[in-house]
Design goal:
Number of helices: 15
Shape: globular
CATH topology of the largest domain: hpI Integrase, Chain A
CATH architecture of the largest domain: Orthogonal Bundle
CATH class of the largest domain: Mainly Alpha
Strand content: under 5%
Largest sheet: 3 strands, antiparallel
Structural class: mainly alpha
Helix content: 40-55%
Distance between the termini: 75 Å
Number of domains: 2
CATH superfamily of the largest domain: Intergrase catalytic core
Amino acid sequence: MLARTDDGVETPSRAAFLRRPNGRDSLPAVALAPLIAEYTATFGSTWSRVTRRKHADDFARLLDWLKANQLPLTTESLDFMTLVDYVTDLRSRPKVCGVWRGSPNALARSLQAGPVQTLSANSVNAYVRPLRSLAIWLVDEGLLALNPFRRSRRRAALNPLLPSEETPTKSATLDDLRALERGCGGDEPLDLRDQAIVSILVTTAARNSSVRLLRLDDLDFERSVIRFRRAKGGKTLELALQPGTATAIRAYLERGRAAFLPPSRTPSDDPGWLFLSHAGGEPRPLTMNSVSLMLTRRYHAGGGSLRCFGSHRIRHATATLLVNNGMPLEEVSRYLGHSSTMPTRRYAQQTPEALGIRAADALARAGLVSG
């Protein structure tokens, strides 16, 4: 393909450099492993420890698949059809369910526990998204001619490399929240700590990490404000501190928190975290897993019947209860820290009962039914 310049000289066009006759990139193939290492070093400082581990697993998963299928471990394999085959393979893999995923033999135990289930489209999407970010970076660096994830005349929902599906939200009812609160009963330091955690989760719909990493100076009792500095996306979110929640936190600070600090402590020994682990050793904040296990244990102690009960169920439940009791969706969205109402619509599901009550009121006002 030739392009004519202003002086009439014909030169190869840019497209001719970018495409070979067989449709592959004209750029030389480069080994993927060092590129992945450079990409991680470039952007990894902004990732959390969990994100770094997940991305490492996602990249290793692709390299293992390429090696198993005797495909080049280079940028040559980052083409559309190769990645389609990779996604197809992922969608046929069994998923771990019914057992703890962190155990070394989790997959084998899962296969023995019940019928085999394959990875969901959303799980595959989560595995592949880091590859898309890598491909975008490689294109920007001039190491990859074409981004295989680029949507050319395709709807986002129909992108074969990023499958997705609508799944029911893991929510909870008001009775479930009451069971959780009952399970936290008691006056021991551990009870007071867990009561404060549950009260914050229920009244603010905050995420696990936002609550477990709260610091003492994030509480403003004079203004009745609680500040979440570590919200998703690095946001800082200030929410009203409800009176009942403030009472629970004060009780924990006055009669419970000292039990999690060394007996012969000095002011410098206090790390400043609001909620501390009860495990021995140096005072430290709770881990994400310990909060989830605590919630499930307390929920079952209060008579709850769901198999697991984490902070995200509470978040969905609180959002749903707020919307169904008259709080506008836009306000609920800001309360949850969402940047738009789109994710909030998934969190806050209006129940048939609430919709029926509102419809009955509207029908009565319209004169279509008797009041």
